[in-house]
Amino acid sequence: MTFDDPNRANVYYVLARAYRWMGKYQHAIEYFRRAKLLQKRSSSHSCYVYANTLADLAVTFSQLNDTTKALSLHEQAVTLFRRILGANHIDMPLYYTQLAYVYWQEKRYENAHTLLLAALSILKEDLTSNFAGLGLTKHTMGLVKYAMGQREEAVRFLQEALEMRRKSYADDHPHVARAYYDLALIYMETGNEQVALEYAQAALTIYQAKVPKTHTELKRSLDLVERLSCQREYMLPYSNFGSVNQ
């Protein structure tokens, strides 16, 4: 492939997404940046493909918890998408949700909530809306609701997202595992370790089968299962002791 090959930017973009899926985030960032640079030099710098690369690069930084870079890139992407597609286009909920997730990471919950309401409104009005996309938006809303102290609403949104993802993908898809993992965190933080452990183990089983051994999500799930297992082993003797004395 020559340096000026018109497909070079697309090849870099595809490589970047593959590296991100493997959990090789620095490689992903490098190739997203190469794609972005070539797209910016061409006439596509104001078009959909350039905005899409900005959004994917932002997602990668978000996964690394570099919210400063993620936020800047997502805001640029959303501005471009609004200009290209219109604020209420059926593709916009995905980009609103991605930006809302970074607001959640930064604890800017009201900003996140406003964007997610806009996303859900668009999806509700369009009967052809992508089922998987709705699951992502509901999942993120669940995280935001929990952060805002609305536990029951949070669990409801996350459970709905889980069922949507199981129908849209498969029972053993990594997106399903992420829903299990976040539900496990909520139940752990509210003191229901047994339910939390069941969800955490479900997430771990999927990640062990579907992602590379070095993947961040696999490591997090393994850590959570080990932590919950230790807590349960610690509590059982005291629970049994209490029941005997009663």
Description:
The chain starts with 7 loop residues before the first helix and ends with a helix. The protein is mostly helical. 38% of the residues are buried. Helix 3 (48-63) runs antiparallel to helix 4 and helix 5 packs parallel to helix 7. The chain has two domains: 7-125, Tetratricopeptide repeat domain (Serine Threonine Protein Phosphatase 5, Tetratricopeptide repeat), CATH 1.25.40; 151-246, Alpha Horseshoe (Serine Threonine Protein Phosphatase 5, Tetratricopeptide repeat), CATH 1.25.40.10. Helices cover 80% and strands 0% of the residues. The radius of gyration is 20 Å and the shape is globular. It contains eleven helices and no strands.
CATH class of the largest domain: Mainly Alpha
Class by alpha and beta content: mainly alpha
> Helix share of residues?
over 70%
- Rg measurement, Å: 20 Å
- The domain tally reads 2
Major sheet details: none
- Give the overall pLDDT as a whole number: 89
CATH fold field value of the largest domain: Serine Threonine Protein Phosphatase 5, Tetratricopeptide repeat
Tally of helical runs: 11
Shape: globular
Strands, count:
0
Can you say what the CATH homologous superfamily of the largest domain is?
Answer: Tetratricopeptide repeat domain
CATH architectural category of the largest domain:
Alpha Horseshoe
Order of helices and strands: HHHHHHHHHHH
Q: How much of the sequence is in beta strands?
A: under 5%
Low-confidence stretches: 236-246
Gap from first CA to last CA: 77 Å
Which key terms come to mind for this protein?
246 residues, mainly alpha, Serine Threonine Protein Phosphatase 5, Tetratricopeptide repeat, 11 helices, 80% helix, disordered C terminus
